[in-house]
Each structure stands twice: as structure tokens, then as C-alpha cells.
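Human:
I keep going back and forth on a fold encoding question. Comparing notes only helps if you start from a blank page. Show me how you would write down a chain together with its backbone fold. Write it directly below this note and I will take it from there.

Assistant:
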Amino acid sequence: MEAQLIPGERRTAHQMVRDSLRRAILDGTLPAGSRLVQADIAARLRVSTTPVREALRDLASEGLIRLDAHRGAVVRETSVHEVREIYLIRRLLEPEAVRQAALSLTPETLAALERLQTDLDATRDPARWIALNREFHRLLNSAGGLHRLAEILNHLDDNVAVYVNMALRATEADHLDTTNRYHHQLLEACRDGDGDSAAKLAVDHLHQTLQTVEGAVR
């Protein structure tokens, strides 16, 4: 379990523990069903148990782990039914968030999205790609000014991060390249202020991603 810093980045112990655990879960170092013992994590990362406890609460809210009264913190196991439900909700909500973003995107936000996409195109590390993809969609979801909707979508995105990583590992670079192409098409629609095209792209991409993830979960 190793935390990677972006040059110039400074993090608290809490953030370092959270990011280290998140990366280990996403890259498969901590597989589904793994118990996360606070004392062991604290010793391995050379911190007290307080930042570990805070990090576990964060990861539970993201849907990456569950807090069990008897077993403690456990990396969440996959469920095809849960994946389908999450993607059903996303297909109902995300197109509108993307539509509004395309209609009201500022030049500054568009430039930030393009920088993130450049980084996404350049990486072949699934865990780093997922982290960048997470940041890309958070920025896009909030760009339309529908902050309550963005909060719901961000939570749903966190819930499927483990499943998306499984799909990336199962399909090697195929899913990654497909999603990068989708992002480029989406950015083009945003540059044109074409909300309807952006919304349709979102629906098509979510449908395609669900099929890939279902295959990986099975």
C-alpha cells in the first residue's frame, strides 16, 4: 500500500491514509472482502489510528468499503444487481447534468477539463486513470450549477469505482480507450454548446459501460 504524491502536493495524515487505501482498493491490492484493521493500517503507514478512522469513514461514504458491526471495515464485494441499479439511476440523472454543463460551461472550466483529459490520455495505470476520471466527472457534473444533482451523481460514481476498475483490468486498454474517446466527443459538444448531443453521448456511454462492467463482475 503506497501513496503517490503529485509534485507540489501536501496532504494531511488523514488524506494520505485515505488516498493510499483508495488506491490499494482500486488497483486490487486490497480485494473485495478484505478486512481493514485500523491498528495494522496505522502501523504500516506510520500514523496514529485517528486519521485511519477518519479515512475509513470517507471510504465508506464513497461506497468503497462497508463498516460492519462485527467484522469492522471490509472492502465491498461486487453485486451485479447493485451495479445495474446504480447505472439505471445514472442514466436517468446524468444526461441532464451533462446537458446543463454543455450549455453553461465557462472557458476556465473547459480548459480545466481539457487538461484533465490530456492526463487521462497519457496514463495506462488503471488506478490513476480512475482517479483522474473521477476528477473529470466531478468538475463536469458541477459545471451546470445543479449542485444537489452533482452531489448525487458524485456519490453514485464513487459506488461503482471498484466495478469500473474490474472492467479496466478485464478488458485491458479497450474500456480505457473507449472512455477517452467519449470524453473527447463530450468536450467537443461542450465547446459547441450542444446540450442535446452531450446528453445523448452520456446515455450511450453509460449503457456501453454497464455492459462492460457486467461482464467483468460475472
Notes: The two ends are 27 Å apart (CA to CA). The beta strands are 35-36, 65-68, 72-75. The CA atoms of residues 44 and 114 lie 37 Å apart.
